[in-house]
Amino acid sequence: MSDCVFCSIVAAELPADIVAEDEEFLAFRDVQPRAQTHVLIVPKVHVDDLDAWLASGGSSDRMLAFVTSVAAGEQVAGRYRLITNVGEDAGQTVAHLHWHVLAGPRLPGF
Ligand code: 5GP
Ligand code: ZN
Q: In CATH, which superfamily holds the domain spanning 5-103?
């Protein structure tokens, strides 16, 4: 999608601090980190959110396997928080499915 910031990162039209990728997914650091480790994981195809991903036949197994491999690569396996916001009311500001992997010495509660 041409006006989507995460599609622009996937297409390398916008710079990002890339952490990992495979055929389907890309992981990069959040530009405004809210924790010592704050990585975003996106599918390379444009999908609005988790509900749309699953409705279009996307694999939650493959996606979550990639997410956990990113956490392991960041040396935070066993001590991270995983969040995906679905819809503006939940706080989604970029309408391209993404998981936040957050980790650090003292994550705030919510
Ligand atoms: P949301 O609020 O949609 O769950 O999270 C969107 C996240 O994307 C925010 O944490 C925000 O800091 C991050 N973000 C927005 N624009 C960019 C960008 O251009 N590059 C990177 N690396 N992160 C971005
Ligand atoms: Zn997109």
A: HIT-like (3.30.428.10)
